[in-house]
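Revision sheet: structure tokens.
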Amino acid sequence: MRLEKIVFAGEFVEPFGAINRPKAWPSFLAQVDEINLQARVIMESRWKVVPRDQNRGATFIAQSVIKQNLWQSYVASGHPGWLFELFVNESRGLSFFGVT
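Predicted:
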């Protein structure tokens, strides 16, 4: 897909904590190494722990994939139009590399 900058956002406190601060999470070293190996094709990435209520767009997409079998459509065409306003509002709180 040739993506150069990606923010991974989710409720994954332990895995994302281990990726961001591997020395603080030594028991996750094998998983962090594997993730870094797979993510080597991405020029820049951030791993951001985000509560579900601040990442509702992803939750809605996941539910529509499961309930409506929309497995391929979002990868090919981007987010659905019915979520445009939600993504705009969420993006104001998650600027790409302004996240901490």
